[in-house]
Amino acid sequence: TNQWFLPAVRGDIPPGCAAHGFVCDGTRILVFGGMVEYGRYSNDLYELQASRWLWKKVKPQAPSNGSPPCPRLGHSFSLYGNKCYLFGGLANESEDSNNNVPRYLNDFYELELQHGSGVVGWSIPVTKGILPSPRESHTAIVYCRKDVGSPKMYIFGGMCGCRLNDLWELDIETMTWSRPETKGTVPLPRSLHTANVIGNKMYVFGGWVPQAAGGEISAPDGEWKCTGSFSYLNLDTTEWIGLISDCQEDKGNLLPGPRAGHCAVAVGTRLYIWSGRDGYRKAWNNQVCCKDLWYLDTERPLAPSQVQLIRATTNSFQLKWDEVPTVEGYLLQLHADSPVPPVAAIPAAGIPETSVLSSQGGCSLHQSPQSLPSVPYPEMKVDRPSQTNNLIPNNVQVALSSSSKVEGKEKVAAPENKVTQETMKNHTDATGFKESNAPSLLSVCTSSSQTSANVGELHDLDKQSVNPDASVSCTVSSSQTMVTQQAVKTESSSTNGAVVKDETSLTTFNSKSEAAETAYVMPSTRVSTEQTNDSHSSRAPQRPPAPVKTRDRRWYDVGIFKNNSAVVNQFYLLPEETLNINSKTEGADVPDYRLLKKQDLFPGTVYRFRVAAINGCGVGPFSKISEFKTCIPGFPGAPSTVKITKSVDCIHLSWEPPASPSGNILEYSAYLAIRSTQLQENPSQLVFMRIYCGLKTSCIVTAAQLSNAHVDYTSRPAIVFRISAKNERGYGPATQVRWLQDMKTSGSK
């Protein structure tokens, strides 16, 4: 939402301070030192548990070989593993805070952390090599190459009476200091700048730099100014690359303005820059505090996960894929098995000449999501997001929707357990006009490639309910009691401040329908087909893979979506020449969908899907391909509102009839995932035993049946149930529910 909020913190709230050290370790934040008031510095250490907004003042043990760190400001405080590294800063030599006698420091401390919360104590490592000179307002980052090498800490710049631009390296394993030789143009000497690591690059932005011409290091009383210059150091090759120079003109306010004392944080491959102050040394009264937020996309996003099916109908799909962090949208494409008629070419004049989704590599820059001006450095992208809503630029068509919120938590005896329900809302595309058949967005659980089964999660408690939503995508006969399952994960969904992870599965049913033998089988999926009795399961011979025709695959755009889900009932028909280009290349410019014709989905048709993430640098690589089939009319929907009530020696399963029965419901079947030797051979495919068949919308699961249950460790341990309904045409899709288990007590279940 790009919206600030002020959390209600409690506990040992620290006093306000400036130029402190700050690290983030999971959901906790550690703050050390800083200036409490002019001339009075701190050496207190505070911990904030952000999951509870609880402050705690912690008291580390003193080092065995010296004194603990003295009060200071402008130091660096860097985290690697379970240790924080403190270097340098500025201390007050005078005991009188009104008489400030500055002393620059170059001492080095190590702080060992306890897991989750608390600290062990300070230590003073024995280092080799020449220590960096004393300084404050410098930066320190830790980088470790993935393939080879030990972690290294890099210190750059700072202040020691004059500004510095020297680079120091500490090998953390050997505790050896050195001065690496660098290539390229070294940034100007600076202090109060920021340095952040993304990939193998250290990005340095802003700070105070000398005002003197030529950038010479100034005398202690020299003039200096804020800068908006921006560079990075390739940490593998130690080469400096300048991105924005200090004299870069920015008449259109397309770049972050000069500033110092700002903050910057890397989230994935995106760098966020917030606030700071701008001014000159000789004009203290005219310094301005900034209130703008910018971000830099440093590279194209990674490929999302495979598209997953939530629900299929006769002419639509509800789809979902894992979120990619810090992206502006997703390009969803499909390929149809059935031939799609070509469309006459569209005049080129109708396509915008400037596209925000540049196919060039590297980073790229733009001022705001509302405009698309050209910029002087096309290899970068900086954006200033709206403070209320982060929208895609106007020439990128996006299906927008309100965030789906979890509703209807049922109060039960164990309040810490949660059940999620999600609802679908109407959607409007980015151009402002509604289309009843336009792709829309929905945050829900995901499920199968063949029989859509919405997946809920139930914790181990006395009574809970979940409202899953499901639909038919193939037919299942009444004698079917075994199915196979391939488990996958999805990203968590946020619910009123709490995070609830959705556990999902790709479920494949296969059987002969009482009406027609039309079930589509994915070639990579093994399916059990032998009829079984209600009270036991058996394995059946594998069905040979369905043949896949080799043909030229042409991909059609479904649209660009703001979130990681979509309702698909149409796709866009591109001109013939555009099709030929898009089938060969990825990352092509996105057309203006308002000028294109649409094609509806057909019943009983196989469609292939792929998705790519979009950020300021362009369209990233596509995901692996998924295949889904639209439904054949006439089969019932999936049961809903599944509830589990636990007794001493059994559990009680209940559910509500399908919202769309498509005729009279003749019976329901409930299944339990059980242990099997087949699971040992392929743990990703579950084996189910039918534990109930009848007209009632409830059943008892005995302790004997539960003792044979398989505990699925796809993510959190859970016992898996499926429930499906049958009408005159046959069985519809199953609703799958994961009953979460506390493994400390699961042995008694």
Automatic annotation (TrEMBL):
<protein>
    <submittedName>
        <fullName>HCFC2 factor</fullName>
    </submittedName>
</protein>
<keyword id="KW-0880">Kelch repeat</keyword>
<dbReference type="GO" id="GO:0035097">
    <property type="term" value="C:histone methyltransferase complex"/>
</dbReference>
<dbReference type="InterPro" id="IPR059124">
    <property type="entry name" value="Kelch_HCF"/>
</dbReference>
<dbReference type="Pfam" id="PF13854">
    <property type="entry name" value="Kelch_HCF"/>
</dbReference>
<keyword id="KW-0539">Nucleus</keyword>
<dbReference type="InterPro" id="IPR013783">
    <property type="entry name" value="Ig-like_fold"/>
</dbReference>
<feature type="domain" description="Fibronectin type-III">
    <location>
        <begin position="544"/>
        <end position="633"/>
    </location>
</feature>
<feature type="region of interest" description="Disordered">
    <location>
        <begin position="522"/>
        <end position="550"/>
    </location>
</feature>
<dbReference type="InterPro" id="IPR036116">
    <property type="entry name" value="FN3_sf"/>
</dbReference>
<dbReference type="GO" id="GO:0006338">
    <property type="term" value="P:chromatin remodeling"/>
</dbReference>
<dbReference type="InterPro" id="IPR043536">
    <property type="entry name" value="HCF1/2"/>
</dbReference>
<keyword id="KW-0597">Phosphoprotein</keyword>
<dbReference type="InterPro" id="IPR003961">
    <property type="entry name" value="FN3_dom"/>
</dbReference>
<dbReference type="GO" id="GO:0003713">
    <property type="term" value="F:transcription coactivator activity"/>
</dbReference>
<feature type="compositionally biased region" description="Polar residues">
    <location>
        <begin position="525"/>
        <end position="540"/>
    </location>
</feature>
<dbReference type="InterPro" id="IPR015915">
    <property type="entry name" value="Kelch-typ_b-propeller"/>
</dbReference>
<keyword id="KW-0677">Repeat</keyword>
